[in-house]
User: Fold these one by one.
Assistant:
Number 1:
Amino acid sequence: MENYIIEMLNITKEFPGIKANDNITLNLKKGEVHALLGENGAGKSTLMSVLFGLYQPEKGEIRKNGEVVKVNNPNDANALGIGMVHQHFKLVEIFTVLENIILGVEPNKMGFLQKQEAREKVVELSERYGLKINPDAVIEDISVGMQQRVEILKMLYRDNEILIFDEPTAVLTPQEITELLKIMREFANEGKSILFITHKLNEIMEAADRCTVLRKGKYIGTVNVKESNKEELSKMMVGRDVNFKVDKEDAKPKDVVLSVKNMTVPSKHHKNNAVKNVSLDVRAGEIVCLAGIEGNGQSEFVYALTGLEKMIGGSITLSGKDITNASVRERSVAGLSHIPEDRHKHGLVLEYSLEQNMVLQRYWQPEFQKNGFIKFDAVREYSEKLIDQYDVRSGQGPITTVRSMSGGNQQKAIISREIDKDHDLLIAVQPTRGLDVGAIEYIHKQLVARRDAGKGVLLVSLELDEVMNVSDRILVMYEGEIVGELDPKKSTVQELGLYMSGAKRNTKKEIDNAG
């Protein structure tokens, strides 16, 4: 009989209105990378939260090395050598990197904190695994990729041998993803056992030994990755064949919808400006992609466009109207829709219901209110229509609290709201982050449909496949400047990578001529 380090046997976990895990069995071997694959809301994070002690199952048992164990809370999990990097990081933003890593297991002598001893261990671990960090940096000042390193070092500092990664690459750049997958393989070679939740089939093919697939809370099967392929895995995941190529005709650009002239935006992290004198146009009937490695000014550019941050120079015109100094609501009413990069910070009110979030930018319109009173029936009907149309899954439909939904379904809720709103320009920042292949296929179709309906689409993405497949024009941003304009039909991923890393750039004259 096979020896497993962890066995989750017949696990059932229910929430109001939904059976998140329905009699699931999962076995993890020592020293393997085991991927857990499934659509948004398939029950992957719930299952791992049961293993980590965040939830208690209604039925089933957990065994470690063949012995039944009870995991009542994360402290029990840590005592058993189980660690978890959550999809939305569990870090204290005003603490330093070192303070976050040792939080809860602070070394002390006679009640006095031994920070130097902890620092030496953290620095040694970070160097051994190539997870370079500054122990004294404050969490709110470092990039998302760095924050993830902190989460990984938290597990290593506690000497965990079973490492759970929940969507670890959803917020990383392509370079950081390659680095992380390499580190995961290193962990496995050292005898650590990895459980790896992901939607990304390329990563499973590259890093995993075995893959277990869940669909709608049920166990579908476990396969050896070397004996499988992307097509088989995607069919197991969504129950049908998925088209990985974006079908679209050539763009037929019309009038300019968005015109940005000489935009300059200050940086919050250093003395240089984050966006330096950037000009660009987006026309009706085209998808323009702003590509670049994270931290090169794309976020600040979008914040300034949408009114979330102030510019210190330049102008913005939307459909012929100057919106340089307009408020967020004024920009929205003028015809701007925005799928934000950070869904929790800028996209949703987590304690509100799904139906309230669906009308966040429209509740004052006559369709949804009369004499200052909200028409609740109209809100319910509208949100049910979007839930159905975009397959937004939740335990209690429109009255579900958004915080309780899976990350992918939170994203689908935002996308449905923003695409359905009457707009001339759709700004989509990382629109498929955290979505499964079936949902990605659908979202890409929606972006192309907006384009074909004569709308302008500005896509900001770190996913190179998405950049090459969905865009009609690619503008590359490096250190706050547009350094190149590429035609995806005539360019390669390698060429795009050279521009993104700053190794290659066009002159301003070449870019102006191309545009």
Number 2:
Amino acid sequence: MPQGLLSGGEKPDRLSPWRSRPSRHPIRSGMPFCLPSRRRPVLVAIVIVTIIFFLRSDSLPFGFGADRPDRPKLEYAPACAQAIDHLRNRSYELTREVIYQKRCIRPVIDRDVDRAALTDIAQPLVGEGQLLQLDKTCAGWEEPSCDPIQLKVPPAYPILDYSHMIFGVATSLERLTESMFQFESWMAYSGASLIAVITDAKPKPSVKEDAKFEEVARKFRQHGIEVTLTRPWNTTVTQNEQHFTIVRDLLRHATPDTKWAAIVDDDTFFPSLYPLGLILDKHDHTVPAYLGGLSDNYDAVKHHGFMAFGGAGVFLSLGLLQQLDPHIEACLDEEHVPQGDGLLKACIYGKTKAELTVIEGLHQLDMGPDLAGLYESGTLPISLHHWKSWHQAPVDEMVKISEFCGSCFLQRFKFGTDTILSNGFSIATYPGGTASVNLTQMEGTFDGYPGFEWSLGPMRVPLDRFHKKSYRLIESEKVGRNLRQIFVHRVEDDLPSRHEIEAAKGAKIPHPKISTMRDEVVELWWEW
């Protein structure tokens, strides 16, 4: 079946609103497929004419039109009430008609609140909602009564100086730039510094490339990130091995204030430096120290061994950097490990007396594609990884709530008898009631979940669309002193899942036509 066409219950290939689609190139016999240059204009013309024909037709080929969600560009629609005009944000990609409801939250700061406990609220959170026609004048909208629901939450994290931390990343210039907003989320104006080794830099510096480096560095600094871009000092090693050789870069850029150096990936994400700082403060930075987390995936640990996995974050004391520096070339020659974390482990174990101290809460997240079970488990992660590859999560939008109430990020609240808010990630309703679900166990929403109990604890079988309905966060926006969270239940979520289709073994699965369905939006308005 061609990519993007619907068959039975297949989900449409819809672009995520906060990331770009990776390019796809057909491959044949190991070489890129290409047409002779003289035929390309003819082919392009045929394709354009064909697309225009079908777009102007009442129906599309292969039955696609009947199952295609209607997601117009709503920003050009007639004016509607200012209170809901934000729903036309292009990045939301909502259907023409939506079911909309708004709930107001009035937080009560409580320093003694147990954020690990499931807070029980008698009031319901999700109701029937009202139909909005976003392509018109938002017809059908009436200002809802918004009686605030009081929630006890912890206080905001204190603002501290983290100039004793230096972070190092080895990546391409493009990937570094793509992750700027995520770095900003946890690093901006913190005092911590970022050393970025640009692995795709040309061997010989050029004026053009230097100007590009400076432009990227300027953008990062405009967003409050103290960054230094540098070329690899050793251009003979692979990009992966640069995650080991960056040890020397970190030592060169250390200051008298530096206590801890961290090696991270460009998709390593810390919800906040405050919990991390509390953990590091419990360890002695004056001695050679090697801190980090194992992979959540036991197969990865079996393959790579007992080491700190860099996606979760590797933390080295300044003393350990100094001990490693004179041995880097020898370790590159002696160790046949084509992997940066493995090289670092082998060099530390072979040349120093430091041993790994495992830090809980650092998540490598070598699994996917749906990590809802982790994000809805009530745990507070210290770090997250693979949020733009193995799985997809708008992590910088998710953590905006923590600016107001610190560890309330991913704190769980139960509303009525059937709804759970995992703060910053989702609202989930359970038709059979929450009493029918073991909420003390993590839901195994990711592939191969039975093999993760060793790192994530007891797990339960994932629920299908008949037993759980989810609204996922797509954006958080500060409005004055308040915060608006937008949660959406997509049309596609009501289609049969891949597992349902496989279980049907070719039998036809009835499902509603997408053209008759609507996205559902729940807006939470936090009044601070």
Number 3:
Amino acid sequence: MLHLLVVDDEPYAVDYLVEALDEVPDLQLTITKAYSGREALVKADKGRVDLLLTDIRMPGMNGMELADEILGKWPRCRVIFLTGYNDFEYVQSALRKGGVDYVLKTEGDRAIINAIEKAMQEIRTEISEEQVLLRAREQLFMALPSLRRDYLLQLMEGETDSPSMMEKRFEELGIDLDPNHPVLAVLGRVDDWGKFSAPADRTLLFFSIINIAEEFFTPDVRFLSFLYDRTRIVWLMQPKEGSMENLGRLLDGCAEQIQMFCKRLLKIPLSIAIPSAPSSWELVGSRVEALKLQLTFRMGTGDEMLITEPTGEERRRSSCLFLEMEQLRSRLNRFDLLENYLDNGGKEEFVTLFRELFTVEVPLFSDGEGRWFGLELFSRLSAFFLSYMNKRRLLEELDSISIQAEKMLSPDEHADWNEMIDYFCKLGAVIADYNGQKQVERTHDMIAKVHDYIHQFLHEELSLTRLAELVYLSPPYFSRLYKQMTGQGLLEYINETRIAKAKLLLKTTDRKIHEIASQVGLESAPYFTRLFRKRTGFTPQEYRDSNKSWKGSFTGELHNSGLDAQRIDNMNKPTP
């Protein structure tokens, strides 16, 4: 949303322009008013100014001087001058600076609105989609290695996309691999850093190892490598031609040579773990985890190991349980999404994602290794919810019966895996529901606070910026939130409140029209009259006269009914 600052030393002109702009559909502007150049500068210090609409001839600081000051603070601001015929010499000098337009005061509202819409379009063109995308592509090229690594690590953690989406992402990130075919994942580990002890030296070392490996595998292999963590490198490979079996044989023959060159040229020992078979993209992360375990159980000195993953029946016996476990471990990396749904009160979204992450085959967790893994998952889930609730002090807020805290702390409180998952899912639903209710309450309290302020300080200027500051929100966001929660714009509510109080003052006091205008926050009596008539169908004086006529007739009937004069006088007195 763009920010417009309207400046004129005539309050009526400012109020009139703001109301006219507020009635333009889909203008998408936040508007701030100022009645002098000095006041405008104060407001420009408090927030960004995208457009400045100002009169040229003002006492103290004129519009030309104000524009120079604003442009000094906000160089990308567009300036529109409201001018008379005799101001054109000033405008000509301003036009030479660029980003400046002018409207003759005699041209009317439509010309002003057109000038504002034109300036808005120029701003949007300046930051148009094409330019943003062009700059993004340039930045993407610079950040490509880092973005590529981040995406591949997400794949390692099990966050795979559809094949078509993966194809698109591979192309964007320059990944020369086919997402529709299996991939061979090889793991390398630096066993001893040697002279490469500094972080900058380690980065250089990693890229040196990658370059050595590329020399052996290209041009026969589609090959990509990235840093997996502080000590390990992952190589992802597919054959350009031929079969995976041929690629496996090539790998077996080259791995020892890669180790030899790393030792000779870089003076570092490198261990390599080779998989027994290629993996689908969904399971490549689990395969890398298995290779990590292979390298963990060192033999001999533990340096420069060259290990091949077990094959045949031995591997098949353990693969089902292991892959299931690794997939679950990778899903634990998505706690941030669950936390986001909890914070936003997204009860249904939380339940859907939680069930998706933790629905598994129960027999896998019935005994042996699977049982211990079930305890591991319980610990992770328990720690997540306990940490979440402690940070937000929810343990004191939520009913202890509804959360059954003992089940969050002890795995023995659950009969089986299903019961444990059901408990944590329901616990998350309770938290999300509570947070959602609190958000609604806080929003209503915030709006009530703003409404109280409006009623208390109706006689003062009630800018969007000032009201947003009361509730510590940005003006554009507060404006959208207010309309979303109440169904009307903030200015509309302020004007309704002003008219309601003006009606009361017209009915119950003998104050002059311009005094009532000032008391409801409108310094310009003509503008007050125009706004009042637009809202009620009467001028303020017509409204007062009609109420006096009604009151006089009603008072006469009271006299005829025999009520004493003192009680009638009391009824006619203004409300304090």
Number 4:
Amino acid sequence: MNNENLSRDEAAHRSELLSVDTYDVHVDLTNAADTSFASYPTATTVRFTARAAEETFIDYIHQSIDSIKLNGGHINTAEAIDGSRIRFTPVEGENILTIHGRSYFSRSGEGLHRYTDPTDDKTYLYTQYEPADCRRVFPNFEQPDLKAVFNFRITAPAHWVVSSNAELDRTLEDPADSSISKRVFKPTARISTYITTILAGEYFVASDTYVPTSTVNSGKIPLVAYCRASLAEYFDAENIFTVTKQGLDFFQDLFDYAYPFKKYEQAFVPEYNLGAMENPGMVTFTESYIYISGATQADLESRANVICHEMSHMWFGDLVTMKWWDDLWLKESFADFMGTLGSIQANGFEDAWTTFANRRKSWAYYQDQLPTTHPIVADIPHLEAAKQNFDGITYAKGASALKQLVAYVGFETFIDAARAYFKKHEYGNTTLDDFLSVLDEKSDRDVKTWAQAWLQTSGLSSLSTERIFAEDGTLQELRIHQELPAGVPTGLGRPHQLMLETFIASDDEEPQLTSTGKFSLEIPAGDSHSVAIDLDAEAREQVAAADLLLLNSGDQTYAKVYLSDEDGLQTALKSVSTIDDALARGLLWGSLWNQVRDGKLAATTFIRAVEFNLIREPSATLLAALTSQAQSAISLYTAPTEQASLWDSLYSALSDALESAESSSDAQLILMRSTLAVAAHSPLGIEFAREVSRGAIEDLKDADIEGLQGLKYTQTLGWSALIALAAHSEVDDLTLETARADQSSATSERGFAYASAAFPNAQAKQAAFTAVTTDQELSNEILTATANGFKLGEEKLHVEFYPQYFEQLLDTWNDRSIGMATRVVTGLYPAAVLRENKAIEEHPAVAMGEKWLEENPDAPSALRREIIENVADARRALTAQQASSR
């Protein structure tokens, strides 16, 4: 019986019945390095109080269960085990439950993930639980509001590094085998199951100590950073520690609350499903934040942002935790906001809000326009829904709404409310009402109406300006138009605090845009589809003379801003990168991109603007975003008949810009990465890719790439080049095999999987499709790399797999974890490629998806959501392609 999908009602009932005191958990990893062992022993004792002698259950996704004891008496395992649940009836009052079993090692990144490094055969393990995969490691009451104190004991090879949330108390050697030892950790603070953690393996260890300079502080805190031994030479732990120290100083004073845990460790781990996870005492990160081929300023900013994001979770999420996953936003929206704030104010990355505007909000805008969009405070009836709501709404839209809230109530009021919230609810669980009640006490604004409009409705507003001139040419009126999303009643509206900035263009052949000032506007709640703005004489003159109007300057609110020709659209396309302020440039580029996705601006026009500005854009963050969006514009939003010439044109523009980029600059590395990505689609890049591929084939360490001083041959760039060559059949299997074997690493394993699937022939596509759909030994990252390679190439290579894809959907979902199933479902979904004289409804990406949904109304809601979203993406892409072909 598959009963892993715990419901909100079941969790609420269990929390009414139980309160949990402690877990004593022993995990035996003695044989973890031997991959012939699929599982490992666990022993768990839970002390809890029951309010009634009523049947309940504890969660455990297991290989086997050896024994169950309740209050000293044995329970019949055959009767108690019910799928992923162990049912029992406690006595009223205090209870002790002990369970011995075996748990599976994971290759999916869920539970206890095991990785063997192909470079040196060393073994690495780490856990990832959110939202409910702790039960894959040891039995527990898997819901966030049943907090407890955890006592971990880990048996492992004596030479291994072993860590957990709390400090190590003592190490006990095995008297019968000196190569094995047991690490006993001190009790944790009272925390939720999903943020407990275990790390074990042959990790490289860097250490430091945090000595606070903040007024409010924790005292000295030990700092540790971990990575695989084979990555130690690339591991810039000193930078990581600097960001950590500056972040701790900043947040302790900002929140007026000392860091609430006893140590601060950070592990950068392989094949990680997320960016990072806020386990108190030991945060885990994807090792993608170790920059093997060099780091741009944008890369370092990104990592600092994530470090600060996870650090803010120590208060928003770990100290105070949501009661159930409906209020996931209570931690993720806050952390997204605070991560950016900490990047700027603690670590000096001044363009972090620009990155937020162009990357995080772009994610939110995308998610909010899908038919599956939801309010920031979502309805989460069960765990599968929770798993899927770690999305652009919960993170980036929520953070955008908080930025708007700060503009609405004031930063000091917002922070005062946060401080009161931590003190009132420390080590407890909360809901939206708990936060709003504290905010309401601190603010004289109507926060309840604000929350109803922003947190409890779905969809994305569109804003635009209109200048109305009199016959004599004087400005008569400025109006702001708002198109509300379907889910927002007109009477409620969507209030906005925002700014308007005006620009004038010089008369040069390449006009320069100069800001002439900005002023604040307010769009009130209620019926605000068209609002007249009261302007004084100076502002009226400023608006009238402007060649370009930038609505939402400073990015205070969350809305799509449309630019018309009257607002300065053509001026922006020509001169956006001449504006001094990076955030203003980013907002204009973001507006242009949204108009491409909505079919209001031709994708070719956007691509040409990107090509023109490649050598003019000074921000590394924006340059990386623009090169990525230009590629998406070609592959998704232009007709197939136009794509070949556009890929060639973009390759030429990138190649020229790369050639002129400053040696060892951020722009040089960004342009190199983009040039190789585009080379997979343009034959113009074959010779260049062949040269760069030497980094994966030959030992050229520390040598500059031919013709590109300051840019080294690396394995990472080399495999990107080999993938491009494979996509053109310009490399053979033997070369790939040799490169993989000669420089064995995680990079080469992923690159090999990607390149092998990228060959444009039926045999390679069949092998890739079969591997992704049937080989459950593939790790999460290798599966995704294979699927990405499969998707390269013309549609005719993929058509034969479409029926089989839809036939296997239910089996895929039932046979795999939700994380791995999602990778298969999204990774192999049919591409949306416009067909001549065919209606959008007839394309397989739409027609077959719609048919499957119609025929499977009772399929798991999480699977249906994946298909609904893919159909919606296909419709949008095909609509844009159709418009571009006219």
